[in-house]
Amino acid sequence: MTVPGRRSSTFIRLLRSGFTDPSAAARLLDSDALASVRTDPVLLDALGATADPDLALLGLVRLAEAQSNDERPVLLDTLVSAKPLRDRLLGVLGASEALADHLARHPRDWHALVTYEAADLHPGLAEFEQGLAQAHDPVALRVAYRRCLLSIAARDVCGTIDVAQTAAELADLATATLRAALRIASAAAPDDAAACRLAVIAMGKCGGNELNYVSDVDVIFVGDAANGTDEGKALQAATRLASHLMRICSETTIEGTIWPVDANLRPEGRNGPLVRTLASHLAYYQRWAKTWEFQALLKARAVAGDRDLGAQYVDAITPLVWQAAERENFVADVQKMRRRVVDNIPASQVDRELKLGPGGLRDVEFAVQLLQLVHGRSDASLHSGTTLDALHALAAGGYVGRADAAQLNDAYRFLRAMEHRIQLYRLRRTHLVPEDEADLRRLGRSLGLRTEPVAELNKAWRRHASVVRRLHEKLFYRPLLDAVAQLTPGETRLSPRAAGQRLEALGYADPASALRHLEALASGVTRKAAIQRTLLPVMLGWFADSADPDAGLLNFRKVSDALGKTPWYLRLLRDEGAAAENLARVLSAGRLAPDLLMRAPEAVALLGDPEGLQPRTHEALEQEVLAAVGRADSAEAGVAAARGVRRRELFRTTAADIIRSYGTEDSPAEEDPGALVDRVGNAVSDLTAATVAGALRAAVRDQWGETLPTRFAIIGVGRFGGHELGYGSDADVLFVHEPREGVDEQEAAKAAQTVIAEMRRLLQLPTADPPLLIDADLRPEGRSGPLVRTLSSYAAYYRRWSLTWESQALLRAEPVAGDADLGARFIELIDPLRYPAEGLGEDAVREIRRLKARMESERLPRGADPTLHTKLGRGGLSDVEWTVQLIQMRHAWSEPGLRTTRTREALAAAHAAGLIPTEEAQILDEAWVLATRVRNAVMLVRGRAGDTFPSEARELAAVGRYLGYAEGTVGELLDDYRRITRRARAVVDDLFYGA
What is the pLDDT of residue 5? Predict the structure, then answer.
């Protein structure tokens, strides 16, 4: 009798043996079915050694209860006396609820685990075919299949076979099953079987002899006529047989299903005929097939049906597979395939995906296959469909470092073992790591992790996934460095030809130059070269992820040559994780940012500082510029210092824009393109204003000391006043002055003219820094009018002569430099003009519309595509801005929110005031933001301003990457641009023209 309040010794023993519910386990042990063995200590120890003792005990009770009275003692006696059976049976029952169900339905199948002969330890295809030989219908085939699967699972969980052998046995069982299914289908339709030859080609994991417990079995069918049958009729017969074979394996019966047979890897996929002749297959592959189809054919293996026809198929397609790397679009296809596609995985599952998630199985498989395609054309030792065999061959041939291959081998085996045990539990097709604690505990224990199974499992999984995440560095790039550095005597290395082939496959257009850069950076025994050999495998991967890897590598060499002797440069890249990736993104995204960096390479330091990419305030910029001008000995030196600040800050802005647009491994790309546009516009406008203020201070101080004879203010207009400057924008301004007391008006005007001329000269002096062009063409009377006016002259002009377009131009006027009080009074003067009381009259509205229509017909450059011109094209910047500005001039007198110089703010205010419906406001905003980003992208990529998309393919691809489009999708970019701007133009026609 148990003392109240104390646990029984049985309870404690069960707890120590690994049972999570000892009370339930005690009740099961007390069941009649186990009466003869319940006290046997061997049984309890054996249960405790399983992945899930509770599950194993429950399965054992169910199996014992299902036995006949004569059979049950035989089972239990054998169980306690024969260790091989005990380990196998209880191991399966503790790992697989589904196989326990099978044993409960078919209680005599436990005998399949009794035999312990040499052949039983490692059965092959012949043994599995023998095991399925008596199955003559789909139901019997399922039972026989499960019986064979039971033996594989037993060897797996007991460690008799490793994960690769398990996968190979599962593939052999699948092969035997396909043959049995074809036998059953042929018996059901003997006339069809006699009329045709049908070969079944295994693809995917089955073809590669590395199948999972539960997986689609990918196949391709090849048919031909037999016995003089007409080819068309023979293919129809073959199609009926193939369809029946698929149903036999896939359909659900009272014994469940086996697995789906998937024929979608055939030519044309599900849209193509299920069965083709060999000639038809070859015609398709030679003319129409894509790179991924040849990658899939790496694993093609004839497994069932007509052996001669199957062998002919494999012999015919094998040369095509190994010539795939020579195809015209191979590099572009590889770049598209190499970029992970995880968009289809729900966000909540990405971190639990063993196959497709970051650091998953697909990463290893794809990388190995890519290297096989690149190097297998000249090395037949790489012609294997099995991932681990191919990885071993790559290492043996020097295509992959041996240590890296060993690490990846271990990681792949661990991840496949996890996948096997997850699927084995319920025999369901899944690649998700479970979340439930009990499931994780069972999984960890099944892999031999017994002390803290959940914690140990998570730690091991993350460690191996981390190894796989870096596989591009290990597999693709590190061998390239070994090839050029040649530091380890006796180590097998890539030949120069193989290294060039690999670089070309990874997107480098000039492999020979790339190898020279690598050799210059990484050769030698210096500390600098050693650090570069650590950095370059990672950097090369980031460069390859851009539209122009060659430029990225060349720019990296230039920066490294310039800074290589400084003590902090390589240390920054090595120790600050973000700095190296940020630099790689910046150097390979186009010409502008690298050009800015080359003029002052020390700006690299900004990339390693978390705050280094944050834009500085206007006040901080102006303070630094004015202080630099104040320290200078001359106006030229002062403005040179100001332009140096501008160059550095332009680099900061371009770098931040590129990094936020591309995203990094640790920080995703900015999802709001409007935020990117606003950040660039504000930063460049503030920087331009500070630079102009510095030039003004230098010009005044050089001739007049601290005080100019006239008060002087600079008014930003256009994009400058709207805080919307892009990288290639000029500074549109108006100049206004007001003579100081006692100063002659002519003397004041002359001083103002002199200051303007000197500012322009200083800002355009030939130096290493980019010039800043000041454009005053929006002044009254345009180029025909005086360059600078007094405030009273502006007042007189606007009162008497002002035209509607001039009032419109003033909508984006804002003081940017000079006398703040004078600037404020200028704004007071123009407010009634740009925000007229009671709004615009109909005549003025017609005049604005007439001007806009004339501009559209006259100013668009000859030959320009109006659907792709960002400024003057359909639905472009001009369309949106004129529409918004017309609304401002009509309604800002009564809607204070419209009194802003910024286009997006005014558009939002118009929507808030009910002047533009929500959908139309969103359409205009999207078009304006996209057109602005395209202009910025063109400047970043080409290093010079442009209003249209580049015509050169690599430049256009770089623009696409900046805008978030993957390699090879520039067609989608142009289609999207046309669609978005077409919708915007429809809104413009409605709101602006009143159509």
Answer: 43
637 Cα distance to chain centroid: 46
Q: At 387, list the tokens.
A: 């991932």
Do the strands 731-739 and 196-202 form a parallel or antiparallel pair, or are they unpaired? unpaired
CA-atom Rg of the chain in angstroms: 37
Instruction: Convert the pLDDT of each residue in 794-830 to its tens digit.
Output: 999 998 888 888 899 999 999 999 999 999 999 999 9
Residues 6 or more apart whose CB falls under 8 angstroms from that of 905 comprise: none
Among 362-366, 618-622, 721-725, where is mean pLDDT lowest?
A: 362-366
Q: What is the pLDDT of residue 66?
A: 97
Q: Which string of DSSP letters, residue by residue, matches 349-413? A: TGGGBSSSSTT-HHHHHHHHHHHHHHHTTS-GGG--SSHHHHHHHHHHTTSS-HHHHHHHHHHHH
803 token code pair: 């035209």
**In which element (H, E) is residue 539 found?**
helix 527-544
Residue carrying the six token digits 């200051």:
755
**50/135 Cα distance (integer angstroms):** 32
DSSP state of 770: P
pLDDT in tens, 456-495: 999 999 999 888 888 777 777 778 777 766 555 555 678 8
Helix axes 41-48, 9-16, angle to 10 degrees: 40
Do β-strands 710-716 and 275-276 pair in parallel, antiparallel, or remain unpaired?
unpaired
Q: What percent of the chain has pLDDT over 70?
A: 96
Encode pLDDT of 204-223 as tens digits.
Answer: 999 999 999 999 999 999 99
Choose among 472, 907, 402: nearest CA to 674.
Answer: 907
* Structure confidence at residue 496 (pLDDT): 86
Nearest Cα neighbor of 652 from 692, 593, 572, 694 is 593
Please report, as a single letter, which amino acid is at residue 257: T
Amino acid code (one letter) for 788: V
Q: Which of 934, 371, 326, 925 is nearest to 661 (CA)?
A: 934
In the structure encoding, which two tokens stand for residue 730, read together?
A: 């000029």
Tokens for 810?
A: 């003033």
Please check the confidence at residue 4 and state whether its pLDDT lies above 50: no
| CA–CA gap between residue 621 and residue 615 (Å, rounded) | 10
Structure confidence at residue 27 (pLDDT): 93
Residue 788: strand pairing partners:
735
235: phi then psi, degrees, rounded to nearest 5: -70, -35
Q: Summarize the confidence of residues 645-667 as an average pLDDT.
A: 92
What are the tokens at 714? 């600079």
Nearest to 684, CA basis, from 730, 640, 717: 730
Sequence length of the chain is 995
Q: Residue 188, Cα to own-chain centre: how many angstroms?
A: 49
- Rounded Cα gap, residues 957 and 934, in angstroms: 12
**Encoded amino acid at 757, one letter:** A
The mean pLDDT value of the chain amounts to 91
Kindly give, in sequence order, each residue whose CB lies less than 8 Å from that of residue 770, ignoring residues fewer than 6 positions away: 596, 643, 646, 647, 650
Closest CA to 985 of 862, 852, 891: 852
Cα torsion 484, 485, 489, 491: sign: negative
Structure tokens at 563: 């800074």
| Per-residue pLDDT band at 665 (split at 50, 70, 90) | confident
**Bridge partner residues of 223 (DSSP):** 198
Q: How many CA atoms lie within 13 A of 132 on its CB side?
A: 28
Q: What is the pLDDT at residue 377?
A: 86
What does DSSP say about strands 196-202 and 217-225: parallel, antiparallel, or unpaired? antiparallel
What integer is the mean pLDDT of 419-444?
95
Helices (H), 576-634: 577-587, 592-599, 618-631
Q: What is the pLDDT of residue 475?
A: 79
From the list 368, 365, 349, the residue with the least C-alpha distance to 357 is 349
The answer to whether the CB of 946 falls within 8 A of the CB of 694 is no
Q: How confident is the model at residue 311 (pLDDT cuts 50, 70, 90)?
A: very high
Structure tokens given for 491:
């180590």
**DSSP code at position 965:** P
